[in-house]
Amino acid sequence: MSLSVIFDLDGTLADTSADLIAAANACFAARGQGAPLDPLADAATAFAGGRAMLRLGMERLGQGWSEADVDRDYPVLLEAYAGAIDVHTRLYPGAMAAVERLWGAGHKVGICTNKPAGLAETLMTRLGVRDRFAALVGADTLPVRKPDPAPLFETIARVSGDPARAVLIGDTVTDRETARAAGIPSVLVTFGPTGRAVAELAPEALLDHYDGLDAVLSGLHPGH
């Protein structure tokens, strides 16, 4: 029987951190405040989203700020990111080979991300792999985003899948909470900036490399 294997994007399918950090730094540079964020040291914050990066940068600059400042800069960040979305971004090793194996075995494959849908569509198209995913649900596809389970259920529906035979592959607490809320097993990758620390989130499984995805899925859904 086929599975619905739903992937997060940032930090799961692709390492987008350097381009995200560059977009956040562009907001600060525009005001003559330099580049307070580091593409390596702050990668985990990049995967927490644009507003998280802006908050960290503002805190690091040591100046007074409010959520209104974050809201003001967020559209600027999105514009900067859209203009340089795939300069440094790379798919993780083995990711697309694993997706091809899923297709070959008759499974259903989709993306559920908290990146705005338009940017996610652009990025996956630029990377040349958008057609390998039957559906893409972004942060603004529905009125709610992860960790609300609705986007995950929507992605499963769009790939014509069954929640009872679905898995969410992700990298953060957001993905873990989304899967838990949906009653669906979660697999967290360990090759992100936090490494095997994601084990503390108690997912149903960990994934050290995409070469091992088939075995992980067999453990979660024997006989699939």
UniProtKB/TrEMBL annotation:
Extract one GO cellular component term from the record.
Answer: cytosol
Question: What are the GO BP annotations of this UniProt entry?
Answer: DNA repair
Source organism of the structure: Dinoroseobacter shibae (strain DSM 16493 / NCIMB 14021 / DFL 12)
Q: Which molecular-function annotation in GO is an example for this chain?
A: phosphoglycolate phosphatase activity
This protein's record includes keyword Hydrolase: yes
Q: Which domain of life is it from?
A: Bacteria
Q: Which PANTHER family match?
A: PHOSPHOGLYCOLATE PHOSPHATASE
Q: Which family does it belong to?
A: Belongs to the HAD-like hydrolase superfamily. CbbY/CbbZ/Gph/YieH family.
Keywords per UniProt: Hydrolase
Under catalytic activity, the entry for this protein gives: 2-phosphoglycolate + H2O = glycolate + phosphate
Q: What is its EC number?
A: 3.1.3.18
The metabolic or biological pathway listed in the UniProt record of this protein is: Organic acid metabolism; glycolate biosynthesis; glycolate from 2-phosphoglycolate: step 1/1
Q: Which InterPro entries match?
A: HAD-like_hydrolase_sf, HAD-like_sf, HAD-SF_hydro_IA, HAD_2, HAD_sf, PGP-like_dom2
Q: What is this protein called?
A: phosphoglycolate phosphatase
Q: Give the main EC class.
A: hydrolase
Please give the Pfam families that the UniProt record associates with this protein: HAD_2
- KW Iron (keyword) present: no
